[in-house]
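Pasting two entries for a bug report.
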Amino acid sequence: MTKTKNTPLPLEWKYTEGLTSYDEAMAVMEQRVADIHQGTVSELVWFLQHPPLYTGGTSANIDDLLLPDRFPIYETGRGGQYTYHGPGQRVVYVMLDLTRRGRDLRKYVFQLEQWIIETLAEFNVTAERREGRIGVWVTRNDGREEKIAAIGVRIRKWVSFHGICINVEPDLEHYSGIVPCGISEHGVTSLADLGLPIAMHDVDAVLKHKWIEIFETPHE
C-alpha cells in the first residue's frame, strides 16, 4: 500500500521494552525515514530507553565532554550539543512526513516543546521554554532553573527523526560527565527528583493522549 499526500497511512505507535542500543535505534530510524519518504510505510512515534550513553549533536563542543571514558559516545546528525541518555529516561523518536504537515520546521519544534509542556502539566509540573535555551525547563522553589526534557531534531527530505527525551527517573549523576547542551550555569532534574515518582507507562499514556491535540488538530 502506497501512501499519497491525500491518503496517508495511519500513524504507528511503537513501544520497546528494556534497553535499546543506540546503534540499533539509529539503524531503525534511518530505514524508516527513507521508507516514509518513499511513501511505503506510515509515520512512526517510537517509545524506548537507552543504556547509559552520551550523544553529541552538530553543535557539540569537545570541551563540554568532561569524562570521555565514562560511557559510550555517539556523534549524531541531530541538532544540539552533548546530552545523556539512560535508563529511567523516556526517549521518543518521532518520524513524521513534514511535507504533508506544512514543511514548517519552527512550528514542528514548537509542537515538540508544547507536547512535553502539556504532558508535564498533567502531573502538576510547570514546565516552560527559555529564550536562547533548547529544551524544556522547570523552576525550583529556591529559584534554580533546571532542565527536565531535551529536544533534538534532524530532518532529511522533509522527514523528521530523533525527537524528545523526558527525565522520569534517570540517575542524574550520570550527567556529570558532560556539560548538558553546553549550559553549565543550570542543572538537570527529573520527575522523581521533583518528588514525583511517576511510572513510565503513565507518562506514555499522557504523551499519547496529548498527541492529537498538539499534532493533529488544526490551529489558527
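Entry 2 (this is the one that rendered wrong in the viewer):
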Amino acid sequence: MTTVGRILKEARSQTRLTALDYAHLILDDVIELHGDRQFGDDGAIVGGLGRLAGRAITFIGIQKGKNLQENLKRNFGQPHPEGYRKALRLMKQAEKFGRPILTLINTPGAYPGVGAEERGQGEAIARNLMDMSDLKVPIIAVIIGEGGSGGALALAVADRVWMLENTVYSILSPEGFASILWKDGSRASEAAELMKITAGELLNMNIIDKVIAERGYFSSEIVEDLKHHLIETFDELSQLDTETLLEERYQRFRKY
C-alpha cells in the first residue's frame, strides 16, 4: 500500500475520534444545540457551546459513527441541507454574542440524495460559504478525518485551516475522481496519488496552515497539542480588529 493509500485508509477508520469526542475532550461545560428552525435536526452535523480555557466558544462538527448503527443515525457523516442551516444558525448566534467558532470536519461529502437536493443542498452550502466569509468573529477549522468536496468546505471558510497528520482534504473522493477521469472507480488509489490530498502536500501548497501530529488514532498528546494550538491561535486572532480579520480571511482564499 502506498503512503497516500495508508493515510486515506486511516482517515476513514471508524476508530478515529469523532467531532463530539474532540469537543468533550478539548472543551469544558459542553452544551449541544439542535435543529435548523426550518425543517429538522440533522444528525450528521453537531454543534453547541463550550469553554476553552475559560473562553466561551461555539463548536460545530460533522459527526460520523463508530459502528453501523451509529453511522445510520449520522448518515455516515453526509449532511443534509438542514445540517448546514443548523451550522449557519449556530455561527450567526456566535457572531451575535462575540464567540469564536471551532469547526471539526470529517465527511466524504454532502449527502447527494433526492430529498437533500429538493430541500436546497447546493443553496445551503453556497450560503455557508458566503456568510462564513463575513462572520465578524475568529474561525478555526480542523480536518479530523475526511474533508470531502463542498460538504467539507461549507464549514472550512476559516481564518485558519488545520489538518491532523493522517487525514485528507479534497475536491471529491478518490473514487469519484477515478470514475470521472478513467470511468473506473477501482483506480481510487492511483487517483489519490494524483490529487495531492494529504496534510503534508496541502501544507506545502499553502492550502492549509498547520498539521497536527498524530500518535495513533487516539492519544492524550494529540488532544493536548490541538488544545494548546487552539488557545494560542484564538488569542492571536482575537487581538485583530474586525476589518483586519475579515480582510485577511478574504485574502487567504483569494490567493488560490
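Dev reply: Rendering is fixed now. As a check, the viewer should reflect this: The two ends are 31 Å apart (CA to CA).
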